[in-house]
Write a structure and sequence with these properties.
It is a single chain. The protein has 212 residues and is an alpha/beta fold. The chain has two domains: 151 residues, 2-enoyl-CoA Hydratase, Chain A, domain 1 (Alpha-Beta Complex), CATH 3.90.226.10; 48 residues, Lyase 2-enoyl-coa Hydratase, Chain  A, domain 2 (Orthogonal Bundle). Helices cover 46% and strands 11% of the residues. It is built from ten helices and seven strands. The strands form two sheets. The protein has a four-stranded parallel sheet with strand order 1-2-4-7, sandwiched between helices. Strand 1, helix 2 and strand 2 form a beta-alpha-beta unit. Helix 3 packs across helix 4, helix 4 packs antiparallel against helix 5 and helix 8 packs antiparallel against helix 9. The two termini are 24 Å apart.
Length: 212
């Protein structure tokens, strides 16, 4: 699925959600997480459009690793996040130790990885592990839909380049990150979407972005 979406230039936003709660209770006994190349979290992280992860219920082990690869994460009040892998004699292997330490404070990441400490929904929101928390389970879908609608109002090329700036820039020294931002701005300036954004501003109308 992720491989197909990576080549789909018409996709503006990708929503990642379980068909039913819980989101993920961890790998089954027959699943070898190291057998994937690329691993699913890396595949979702490589998508051009922003990925919105919608979590209800427990989100454990490889499930949390996949969710950490999303750009925007939302959950319901019954969600619980944990990396209990060490208790099963294995390490997170889909980027969990690295993406978690970038999403929350290192001390919190250490507790979740080393102790397997679960983080309930309200705590996850306070830590920044999720970006929005639904007031009740029935409100989760509407919350996610509103965030997706907001993203769809943005220019698709601007979204793609902004995502690249944030993710690549986080791995660069500040000077190189600023240069990257400037290069991406020059790239966007030559697009039809940028011209449409300017025209819409002066015409005082909503822009009609074409993704080119």
């Amino acid at each position: 699925m992720a491989a197909e979406l990576r080549e789909d230039r018409t996709a503006r936003v990708v929503t990642l959600a379980a068909r039913e709660a819980p989101f993920c209770t961890g790998p089954g006994p027959d699943l070898d997480p190291t057998a994937f190349d690329p691993d699913p979290a890396a595949a979702w992280a490589a998508l051009r459009p922003p990925v919105v992860a919608v979590v209800s219920g427990p989100c454990l082990s490889v499930g949390l690793e996949v969710v950490l690869a999303a750009d925007i994460r939302v959950c319901g009040p019954e969600a619980v996040f944990a990396l209990p892998d060490l208790a099963a004699g294995r390490l997170p292997c889909w980027g969990g130790t690295q993406r978690l330490a970038r999403a929350v404070r290192p001390a919190e990441a250490s507790a979740m990885v080393l102790l397997g400490r679960p983080v309930p929904a309200e705590r996850a929101a306070a830590l920044g592990l999720v970006h929005a928390l639904a007031a009740d389970p029935g409100a989760l879908s509407a919350l996610a839909d509103n965030l997706v609608a907001t993203l769809l109002q943005r220019g698709p090329l601007a979204l793609e380049l902004a995502k690249e700036a944030v993710h690549r820039g986080a791995e660069l020294p500040l000077r190189d990150g600023l240069r990257l931002e400037g290069d991406l701005n020059h790239q966007l300036a030559a697009t039809t979407d940028r011209a449409e954004g300017l025209a819409a501003f002066f015409d005082k109308r909503p822009p009609d972005f074409a993704g080119r």
